[in-house]
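Entry type: protein chain
Record version: 2
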Amino acid sequence: MSAENPDLQIAQAATLQPITEIAARAGIPDEALVPYGTNKAKVDIRRMSAPGPEAARSPKLVLVSAMSPTPAGEGKSTTTVGLADAFSLKGLQTMVALREPALGPIMGIKGGATGGGYSQVVPMEDINLHFTGDFHAIQIANNTLAALVDNHIQQGNELDLDPRRIQWKRVVDVNDRALREIVVGLGGPSQGVPREDGFDIVVASEIMAILCLATDLADLEARISRIVVGFTRGRAPVTVADLGVAGAITMLLKDALLPNLVQTLGGTPALVHGGPFANIAHGCNSLAATRLALSLSEITVTEAGFGSDLGAEKFLDIKARLGDLTPDAVVVVATVRALKIHGGVAKDDLATENIEAALAGTSNLARHVENLRKFGLEPVVALNRFPTDTEAELEAVLDWARQQGFHAALSEVWARGGEGGLAVADEVLAAIDAARGDTTGTDETGFRPLYDPADGIEASLRTLASEIYGADDVVFEDRAPAQLKMLQRNGWDTLPVCVAKTQYSLSDDPTLLGAPTGHVLHVRDLVPKIGAGFVVALTGSIMTMPGLPKEPAALRMGVTETGESVGLF
């Protein structure tokens, strides 16, 4: 096995069970299964019958989040998959619900999002590349709408769209900084009306967010109808419904709306569907997949992107609110290397034992735990083991966590699969039992969203800034003040807010590590996503079209003569 790429080697060596067997184990009937080959399929939720009275139970929803990560990630997906396999080993009917990976980070620096080691969803190569074509469908639906907008202007502009105020951007599933700001329509009258435009990455598209929050085709079309593509010269909003093309865009997405079924290396059924990024979007897999998993399992394990200040906050304040979900437990993934980073150690020195720095970095982990408690949840810390960790470092961090009164356990799922997640699973089950006890023996948790959108966007942002990011103030700059007035004028300022922010710090400055306080949250723009049902707040220097690094991961990738991928991770 190649020491340089063990994840891919492990995945390629695995013997997968036929997807029909995985579906049968999950309780998915044949008529609802749409196979894509032998080891992946879509599930036609329209053909899934509602559970009967005999299936009455109280399925548990476990959310996996993390502390503020390093650029390479801390193994959140790996922990999610391994934890699901651990629950399966304990005899619980389990499903895992994950996001689909995006090609941008795969070809860039972070790699794929199928887990790692012996804790992966498979077929890993398919999932990390084109999978069942969902991202391509989202990309073409988004860009078809863009073409229809420009065509409307070219063909007489009956709606009086102002070319200077078009909100709808084109997208591509590649980190391509050259497309951030462009001009379209050059070449004379027959080529269209010249205007400034730009590209976002697919995972930042409102179509992606809508797909991940829609409950069925009717809801999907209704949300698409509400998309604001731009404004008239009189500054009135123009929607997809005004253009009359909601049906066409929905048609392009009808198959993409169906959740994808695969399996873990441990044979646990896995739904991998949707993929908005958490630093520029809402960071959760589709609501349709999560609900399907809950309807079929005793326990569903899902994740939300990056640290709890991003993915988990949006899961709890946006997805759970809009989807009527109640999480029963939340896991915070931590690593010694991330703790060292937040404790002041340089990236090149992470392999050297440094207990003092690891303990100094616990300020970041503690803040994430404290923040999640504000939602009425008691987190479980999963210390994800990496090969460079020493026993002394691991034990020091676990001792610290226990002294703080945290539920905490060592996670060794990368090396041992579900067996390596049993200790974390026990802590999660204990936390669920404790939560039930705290709510007078009922089957409910004390979960509650952090803010009330009815108080307005500004109030929501100030609550997030102070309670989650540790900021002293919020400053609205650049386009944000005018956009705030526009939101209020159109009655959109009572929607939940989706903050686009760096993942590397609790603040909007990626260099402020640990648990910073006294800083300012800089909001430079507010973008209405009316179809999705939230407003995106762009902060700091975050961009919705990332760029590639100096040495992108694509330099190490290739394919063998027999068609197997090389360098994919």
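Comment: The longest helix spans residues 134-154.
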